[in-house]
Design goal:
- This protein has 311 residues and is an alpha/beta fold.
- The chain has two domains: 225 residues, P-loop containing nucleotide triphosphate hydrolases (Rossmann fold), CATH 3.40.50.300; 59 residues, no CATH class.
- The chain has ten helices and 14 strands.
- The strands form three sheets. The protein has a six-stranded mixed beta sheet with strand order 6-7-8-3-9-10, with helices on both faces.
- The model has no long low-confidence stretch (mean pLDDT 90).
- The site of adenosine-5'-diphosphate has 11 residues, from α1.
Length: 311
């Protein structure tokens, strides 16, 4: 598995005021982004996501640690050229039109005028902004500016796309559209690292996740494996179910639905639960594993207090 980006033992502390104490924003964070993956950097506000991405982009210098892009030093200009970045708050000269702005950036990155023009038309179409491409951006909504930011990040056909909270501040429809664009880029083979504090966004778009809390990794890996591995089991009873069951382990809980009586129990306590059921005279129709939602996974790892209410 070729790593497009690898981050090793990043440490960063900020001084909260001049001469004041330093507060640790990153405390030894390490992770890799394999080629062709869509990786979510997930964590509550203040977890260190923006600091991490800025260290990767060379906008913040870490106190210690190493960033490698495409197997080379992260500071190498040649490596940086192959990365597109959408910052948390993209800033543009609002008296330009998107087409002019993108043309300017395209020329800066060494594109010829005619290849810039066709690439820009393609991208404006991709982000759904072709109809507004020749209006000045001073009247654009946050969502429209965010789409232009995405087009700008994609301009030089980056091999790695880094996005800091790409859908923050967007309305629900804008969020859906951003997710669709990112999903289609991901399935088209662009390697993406995106930060988010929104569980549903990560769950929908990403195939891998790095969960961070207070500047440290809490969990990371393939999303489906993490959620499956830590999931509970469900036991469905054949009818007629016994009236009472004794000796069930502590994690077991009952639910009843159209499919009959259903017991949910942790993976570790499954065999104890099955023994108790059989000894109580139940016959078992089915045992299946239940995938956790990312929210359940997160709450189990960090607790409810680690999270703020999702937008
Ligand atoms: N320029 C800065 N000066 C001082 N503290 C900062 C600065 N940038 C970030 N921090 C602090 O570092 C921590 C991590 O911030 P950040 O990386 O922005 O987190 P996130 O993007 O996950 O919300 C927070 O406690 C934040 O207040
Ligand atoms: Mg941030």
């Amino acid at each position: 598995m070729e790593a497009v980006l690898s981050v090793e033992e990043l440490h960063k502390a900020y001084r909260t005021r001049l001469g004041g104490p330093r507060r640790q924003a990153l405390s030894g964070l390490s992770f890799t982004v394999p080629r062709n993956s869509v990786v979510g950097l997930l964590g509550p506000n203040g977890a260190g996501k923006t600091t991490t991405l800025k260290c990767v982009m060379g906008l913040v210098r870490p106190d210690a640690g190493k960033v490698s892009l495409f197997g080379r030093d992260g500071d190498a200009v040649e490596a940086r050229r192959r990365v597109g970045f959408l910052p948390e708050q993209p800033y543009f000269d609002l008296y330009l039109t998107p087409r002019k702005l993108l043309h300017y950036y395209g020329r800066l990155s060494g594109m010829g005028a005619s290849s810039a023009r066709s690439r820009i038309s393609y991208l404006l179409n991709l982000v759904g902004m072709e109809d507004d491409a020749d209006l000045t951006m001073d009247k654009f909504s946050k969502g429209m500016l965010q789409r232009i930011g995405l087009a700008q990040a994609l301009l030089a056909e980056p091999e790695l796309l880094i996005l800091d909270e790409p859908s923050s501040g967007l309305d629900p429809l804008g969020k859906l559209e951003m997710r669709d664009v990112l999903k289609s880029l991901g399935t088209g083979g662009t390697t993406i690292l995106l930060s988010s504090h929104q569980l549903s966004e990560i769950e929908e778009i990403c195939d891998r996740v790095i969960i961070i809390h207070r500047g440290r990794e809490v969990a990371s890996g393939r999303l489906d494996e993490l959620l499956e591995e830590k999931g509970d089991c469900e036991v469905l009873l054949a009818e007629p179910a016994p009236g009472a069951t004794s000796g069930l382990p502590s994690s077991a809980s009952w639910a009843e639905d159209s499919g009959g009586k259903r017991l949910t129990v942790s993976r570790e306590e499954l065999s104890a639960a099955l023994t108790a059921l059989i000894e109580s005279g139940a016959s078992i129709a089915e045992v299946r594993s239940r995938r956790l939602s990312l929210e359940e996974f997160f709450v189990r790892r960090i607790g409810k207090t680690g999270w703020e209410v999702e937008e």
